[in-house]
Amino acid sequence: RGEWQKLTIEREGGEGSIVEGDEIFLKGWTGKYIDVNGPFPAGGIQARWNHRGDWQGLTVERTAAWKTGVEPQTQPPTEQQTEIPAFPSELSDPLRRRESDARFLIQATFGPTRSALKELEGQQYSAWIWNQIGRPIESHRQYYRERVNPRSSRDPTLEAKVGSARTRCGYGSRWLSFALSLGDLKKRISVRDNEILVEGVLRTEIDPAYVGNSILAPGNCTDVPPPWWERNGHTCQSKLTSMRWACVDDYYVERRLCQQSCFDTGFRYSSEDDCSRGWPSLNFDGYICRVEEAIGGWVQLSEDSDCKTSFLVLVNPGIWLPSAGLSTDAAAQFHPLRAGVLVLTQALSSCSLSDFMRSDTEALGRFYKFDSRLELVQNSLEAPASSSTGGSCPAVPRTFLNEENCRILPGCAPLSIENALFFLNLSTLELFHTVGGRYVYAITGLRTT
Question: How far is CA 254 from the centre of its chain?
């Protein structure tokens, strides 16, 4: 916000509070007053006069929303209070309609719902607010930890400190129908004999007819530059650094300019654009650099492990394993989290699921791959995480919200341990007990020289 953007409000009647019906004038930072030089849309707003004319005046009017606005309460209720303070004319105001209640909920909550609007009917806004204040505190962090599904870590030691891997048959296990995911980034990929292998493990077979992998056959893409590029001797390939803005410009999209170059840089004109050479009969060894998690999503491979040169761009195929002999598990019930992603809605007591399975949830007999995810350990105010084996316990910084529940639990070590230099004497030995609740009985490996 700069000084040149400020406006000064002047009351026509001089100094004083501005109320409904007052006429006001707006003065810009130059000292000139603002007016409109013509009807919308041809006209514009300008600050061009040193004096105040009738055509520059603005009248202050009261809107319906002002009458139903929420006035803040200054003090919380006490046990002695028997009457809840109400906002003036809340229920008798004829302008209070369902729209007004929705506006109030937009201001007071994350947004109105049908159930919240029904609960608010016939209730004073102030009573609703005090009812919300009186409810038990709920932790967003606890809610998030119970439902988050982070990918498994490649470091099993670190993984054991924060949670455990969800099993294939456990509640919340996740399954993907596209062959490559973000968890595959920087992994080795090999394509031979119409098979895709990731880190040497078969991920999917390739259907030469494209039907089995649920993708379209590549099209014939042009790479025609705009006329002014051609006049200056430029091609689409020589202007690849411009693709970020050019490929989203309506002029380029409508005329399909630089279609191939836009696809190669990850800015294709539509989700159906496939300017690749296709998967069938491809022979390739390299690394996975970029992945769009969807069937038909954009995928970038490279022969370089650092993903800086020798790129090959394709689309993400759906998993297709006709020779695996997989069948659907009738007992497994899945919920589609989004296109191509299923989540198991309840744990299976008897489970035959392997790394791959088939489900009819999205399409008849579609193939899916198990996507290993972590289930975080419980660590709430009521039930802090603990370790009975001398391991690490998740911890968070002390705040005014959790300080009454913070405690040192036996068997817990910090998530990370750092080297420190200290004198080994009586006072430091006492700290093991006063801080950690432990006694020092013996020390081994102590160097005395």
Answer: 31
> How high is the pLDDT of residue 398?
78
Q: How many CB atoms sit inside 10 A of residue 362's CB?
A: 15
Structure tokens at 260: 């191939």
Q: Omega of the bond prior to 136 within 30 degrees of 0, cis?
A: no
Q: Locate tokens 């006049």: which residue?
A: 231
The Cα-based distances of 302 to 82, 146, 285, 359 in angstroms read 72, 38, 8, 33
Pair of tokens at residue 184: 């595959």
Q: Where are the alpha helices (DSSP H) in 205-282?
A: 227-231, 243-246, 250-255, 259-264
Helix axis angle, 125-133 to 98-108, nearest 10°: 30
Q: What does the DSSP assignment read for 144-170? A: HHHH--PBPPS-HHHHHHHEEEPPTTS
pLDDT-flagged residues of the chain (< 70): 37-43, 62-95, 153-161, 386-395, 408-418, 436
Give residue for tokens 């300017």: 275
The pLDDT value given to residue 80: 47
Query: Exposed (0-12), middle (13-18) or buried (19+): which is 34, by Cβ within 10 Å?
Result: middle
- Cα end-to-end span (Å), the chain: 65
So what's the pLDDT on residue 369? 95
Name the 3-class secondary structure at 183: helix
DSSP state of 12: T
Quick one: pLDDT at residue 268?
Answer: 87
Q: What is residue 273's predicted lDDT score, i.e. its pLDDT?
A: 86
DSSP structural state of residue 395: -
d(Cα 242, Cα 442) in Å, to the nearest integer?
A: 68
CB 98 within 8 A of CB 117: yes
The residue type of 412 is C
Other beta carbons less than 10 A from residue 320's beta carbon: 22
What is the Cα–Cα distance from 339 to 193, expressed in whole angstroms? 29
Per-residue pLDDT of 409-428, as tens digits, reads 665 665 556 677 888 888 88
Polymer length in residues for the chain: 449
Q: How far is residue 99's CA from residue 262's CA, in Å, rounded to a whole number?
A: 46
Closest CA to 316 of 350, 266, 352, 354: 266
Report whether the peptide linkage leading into residue 156 is cis, meaning its omega lies within 30 degrees of zero.
no
Q: Residue 296 and residue 263: Cα distance in Å, rounded?
A: 13
